[in-house]
Amino acid sequence: QVQLVESGGGLVQAGGSLRLSCAASGRSTSTNAMGWFRQAPGKEREIVARISWDGGITYYADSVKGRFTISRVNAKNTVVYLQMNSLKPEDTAVYYCSAGVDFSTVLRGLGSWGQGTQVTVSS
What we know:
The protein has 123 residues and is mainly beta. It is 4% helix and 50% strand.
């Protein structure tokens, strides 16, 4: 387990951009796979994007393809970014970062989680 701290959320108008950051404490196999999830009011948490250790493998939800980009920097501490462009009101949600030893761990919700950061897109 690692500690994850998200930042970068806020209020933005439709069509605008935000960049979320997720800082993981330390480097370990527990950050091999990382992902961004979101949960809107009254809805289930959903995967938005995920990325492999070296950044060579990325996946995106259909709803964000072409608008969001996930990336990571592996240094003393690992940082994962979610660049969100052309934001829509339906992107409004709490965004969570998750990390695990592999994609399966992340997708099953069994990895580490951050506290979440609110993204609100006004129309």
